[in-house]
Amino acid sequence: MIKVSGLTKDYGARRAIHNLSFDAQQGEIVGFLGPNGAGKTTTMRILTGYMPPTDGEAIVAGYDVVEESLEVRKRVGYLPETVPLYTDMVVFDYLKFMGELRKIPNVNARVDEVLDMVGLIDRADGYIGNLSKGMRQRIGLAQALLHRPEVLILDEPTIGLDPGQVVEVRGLIREIGKERTVLLSTHLLNEAQNICDRVLIINNGKIVAEDTTENLQARLIGAERVVIRVRGEADELAKTVKLVKGVQGVETKSDGSVEFEFSSGKDLRPEVAKQVINSGYDLIELRPLGMSLEEIFLELTGSDTKKK
Amino acid sequence: MRNIWTIAKREYDNYFNSPLAYVVAFSILLPMGIYFSLIMFVSSQQAMMGGPAPESSPINWLFVFLMIFLSPALTMRLLSDEARMGTLELLLTAPIRDFELVAGKWLGAFMFVLGLAALTLVFPLIINNYVTPGIDWMVILSSYLGMILVCGALLALGTGISAIFTNQFAAFFMTLGLFFFLWFMVSLPASYLQQGGDVLNYLSLSTHFSQSMNNGTINLGDIVYYLSLIALGLFTGTTAVEIRRWR
Prior knowledge:
The complex is a heterodimer.
Chain A: E1 2-11, E2 14-24, E3 29-33, H1 40-47, E4 55-60, E5 63-64, H2 69-75, E6 76-79, H3 91-101, H4 107-117, H5 133-145, E7 151-155, H6 163-177, E8 181-186, H7 189-195, E9 198-203, E10 206-211, H8 213-221, E11 223-231, H9 234-242, E12 248-252, E13 258-263, H10 269-278, E14 282-288, H11 293-301
Parallel strand pairs in A: 3-8, 3-9, 6-7, 7-8
Antiparallel strand pairs in A: 1-2, 1-4, 4-5, 9-10, 11-13, 11-14, 12-13
Helix pairs in contact in A: 3-4, 4-5
Chain B: H1 2-15, H2 19-48, H3 57-75, H4 80-85, H5 88-92, H6 98-119, H7 122-130, H8 137-164, H9 168-185, H10 197-203, H11 207-210, H12 220-246
Helix pairs in contact in B: 1-6, 2-3, 3-8, 3-9, 6-8, 6-12, 8-9, 8-12
């Protein structure tokens, strides 16, 4: 659905994105993750036919973004980062206008439908200028969904929403992502973890990692670390855990839990659990620690604020 | 074509959302009404002494003259505001051509001015009531054709300039300056030149209207002049939007 190869964009002397290549299949939600100024918005603008690339090629929904820009634009729904809206227009009229530009048949009914989807049907007759930031965000999303696009490109779709709305919008995106292609950018790592099938981590205009969230974690850690907690003394527990073959790096924590790790591939958790229970402890918690996406992200983008 | 109409319709409706359109309508219709009353008054005095019948051409001239100053206000924000507010990003990622966007914006403004021009038809209708055997409607037709063409050209140039700027006031003053130059100044040196004076006269916005169509003579050259200005304005606008994409 989206196929990008060797994409490069220069703004004057500054190179915003450098030789970017990736693809996204139908029914896939791909997260575009990176710090501010990494080139996320630039890439999205090229994919939506807003600006041409300096070099390279991008095929969206089967059409070249430069050669067949109009065909691409017909098939793409786009929510820009700043959610530009006509503040002096009534919500319904605005969506109707966008729908007419996209030549949607039965536009009035469709506008009602998308307004219902984003939960703003009761504000249809209000002025956009009177809406809160979160509501405007959802109007922008409604606009992107209007023409049932094959490809949905969302630039930070949940920014400015309250927690309840974030859950709702994420649910909506997940629903859409089942049959369509969604490319969304975010710098909220838990969001990427939450809704994306695959994550592209981009920094300084280059892709530094590309994988599923689970694989990214596994790839970077190499070994899996587990925390275990029982009713009773941690020191005693540590000795018991050490008895299991293959367990390494046993540490006693101040909160009374014990951490240990084993090389990924052979899961030792069942053995450890048996050993602990057989030794007469009441097992309360046994949980993989896994490196969080935050840590992976900092590791990959080589940020100075890196932990450890 | 349908895209042009969609854009034009929104732009036309949008004029009535802002006080600007009413201000423009007021500033054009009030002076015209006062001027019309004066003409009627003077002619009625002269008519007793066998003076000429009142004509509507000076009133139509005033409409065009006022448009020089008021049309930049109608076009200044057409595309500059879209760029400033970022809504241009949505229009440029919608499946419409850049030309359709610019032409639609122009058409929206043009429809508003056509409405204003239609309102001024009341003046020749009133004159027609007082003059026997009635006024020459062919002259009125020619005069209104001229008015419409001048306004179309002014609005197209204004739309084109609006696409260049992000700041609507920059667009306003640039447009006003250009109209001032084309209306008053370009033909000034013509009478002092040995050769080429005709070219300068041809470039002037006013001669094609005041000295021909407003008096009932329609020349192909005049029509071509205004149509080429419309084409030039829309071309400038389309190019400016395309350049915006590359930046």
